[in-house]
Every structure is written in structure tokens, then in C-alpha cells.
Amino acid sequence: MTTLRDHIQMLRAELTSYALSRRERAQIERELKQACAQFAADRYDETPPA
Questions:
Q1: What is the chain's mean pLDDT, rounded?
Q2: For the chain, what percent of residues have pLDDT higher than 70?
Q3: From CA 16, how far away is CA 38, in angstroms rounded?
Q4: Which residues contact 38 (CB under 8 A, 6 or more apart)?
Q5: Partner of 1 at 20 to 30 A CA spacing, among 8, 9, 27, 35?
Q6: Quick one: pLDDT at residue 30?
Q7: Are the CB atoms for 15 and 29 separated by under 8 Å?
Q8: 35 close to 13: Cβ distance less than 8 angstroms
Q9: Cβ-contact 38, 17 below 8 angstroms
Q10: CA dihedral of 34, 37, 43, 45, whole degrees rounded to 10
């Protein structure tokens, strides 16, 4: 099973490909932005109150 952190790393790796069209690159960038936001939200929820 792929974790959210793994998914983010895979998307970043895909962006290094030269064989992407503008549409594909934009889609990957959107997915990466969403995944990073979800990761940040999950991390925020796990933070214990001070």
C-alpha cells in the first residue's frame, strides 16, 4: 500500500520527466499540490495540543 508521502515522492519524480505534455505536467502539479495539502492537514491533526 502506498502512503501519502510515497505518493508525493512519485509525483515529484514524474515531474522530472521530459516527455510530459503541458496538460500532463499541469495535472501532476495539481495532484502534487492536493497531496501536499492533505499531508499538511494530516500532520496538523496529529499534533498534540500544547
A1: 89
A2: 88
A3: 22
A4: 4
A5: 27
A6: 97
A7: yes
A8: no
A9: no
A10: -100
- For 30, the grid coordinates are 495539481
Nearest to 39 by CA among 5, 2, 1, 16: 5
Cβ proximity of 2 and 35 under 8 Å: no
Distances (CA, A) of 18 to 28, 29, 46: 13, 14, 37
pLDDT tens for each residue of 16-38: 988 999 999 999 999 999 999 99
Alpha-carbon distance of 25 to 15, in angstroms, equals: 7
In the structure grid, which three cell numbers stand for residue 27, read together?
Answer: 495535472
Residue-wise over 4-30: b if at least 16 C-beta within 10 A, else e? eeeebeebeebeeeeeeeeeeeeebee
